[in-house]
Every structure is written in C-alpha cells, then in structure tokens.
Amino acid sequence: MEPRVRVHRLAEQVADRIRAQIISGGLADGDPLPKSEELIRRYPVSLPTLREAMRILEAEGLITVRRGRLGGAVVHRPSPANLGYNLGLVLAAQRSGIGDVAVALRHVEPACAALCAAREDRARTVVPRLRELHEEYLARIGDLPAVVGVSRRFHEALVGLCGNPPLIVLAGALEALWFSHEEGWASRTEPRGVPLSQREEAGAVHGKILDLIEAGESEAVHRLVASHLAAAQRNPEPSGSPAIDLTLLCELMQPPGEAADPQ
User: Fold this and answer.
1) Which of 54, 76, 101, 203 is 20 to 30 A from 194, comparing alpha carbons?
2) pLDDT higher than 50, residue 52
3) Whole-angstrom Cα distance, residue 53 to residue 59?
C-alpha cells in the first residue's frame, strides 16, 4: 500500500515560501512584508487564502500583522524569546513553576560557560567581550538599574559565545523566560533591597568566571557558574516557586528590559 502523501493547502504553501525567506535571511528582522496586492501577484492566490497564510505565520511569531488602513505585516526573525514564549506556555499547561525554570538554567548555563572555556579561539572570541562587560559592571556598580542590565548581558554572553547553536537557543529561551519573571518581581520590590556589598560580591564572581575561561578551566568554571546561579537566583514571592505568569510571557516578544537582581 502506497504511503499517504499530505497535500499542502494553498495557504500553507504560501506560508512555506515566506517562512523560507525569513529563515534564510531574505527577509530581515523588522522588514515590512510587501502589500497584499504585491504578494498576490507573487503568489497567485485569492485574498482569503493569503490572509490564511498570514495567520499561519503570525501564529508562529514570524510576523506581526497590523490591521486597518495603515496596517501591514512586519517580519520577526526566530529568536530564543520566541522559543521561550512557547516553552513557557507548555510549562504553564503542565503546572510547572518558575522555580523549575531556574533549576534548568542552573544546569544549562554552566555547560555553556564550560564550552566557552574549551574554545581554542576563546582569547579572540570570548574573553574580550566578557572583559568588556565585566569592566562596565565595575564602572557602573553604584547604579543599580544599569548594573543589573550589565549583569544580564554578562550571563547572556556566557551562553551566546559558547559556540554550540542548539545549546545557545535552549539556554537563551530559559534565560528569556527567567528574566521576564525577574523583571516582573523587580517592578514590585524595593531597589534598595540589593545592597552595594551584594553587587560587589557578584562582580567578584564574574571576574573569577572570566579568569577561569581565559585559562581554559572548563570543569572549574562549570562548578563556579552553577554555585553562583544557585546563590544569585532569588525568588521574592512568598510561595517560593510561583506559577509561570502568562502576562509576563507576552512581554518576551518585546525588547528586553532589565533584570531584577545582579547575578
């Protein structure tokens, strides 16, 4: 018996073509899609079929459609934030708490740091960026909102510079999900609750992480980052591990703000 072949509907075929352009870079992040008239000339389908294709792409987070006379569609390249949003939906449906995300991040980010230390080209590709962020952290340590933002970028760099694309995406999604909740907590807590001594301690650990990566000490930096995250991930909610907040998930699709506490 011949295997059954699934025939794509026209709308799916149009969505496939546009999706391929976005993924290949033919359409850049923030680019407007051509108007409906141009798309129909390019892909000879009816207007309802084109609209269905747009709904498919919008549901995937690859475009945002603005309705009305001045509307149109804007391209969004896939990002860890997109994955973080969908990951958060799945975890929320499973009744997982944000504390579970913190635990996962404590396992994944140290692996990224170890890979940074194992890179033969780390002196050129990893160390300069981490040193730049560490020096900025120390220079701005008296400014809590600024130093929190630098701390977040330092941790994101540990992930983004590890050299393993699947791990970068996975860890980036976890980071986006965790930081979105940290920022939500930050908006409800007193900034003076993070004393200067605590920021100085975090900065000292960042310096040790940098030194270990520069020296190529993969196992040692793995241990240090794991213990650092365990100490730095604070949850101010009285329940200890609140449910994943779907309203905060929506903000993952917006430009990132600042994290709650230095890590």
Assistant:
1) 101
2) yes
3) 10
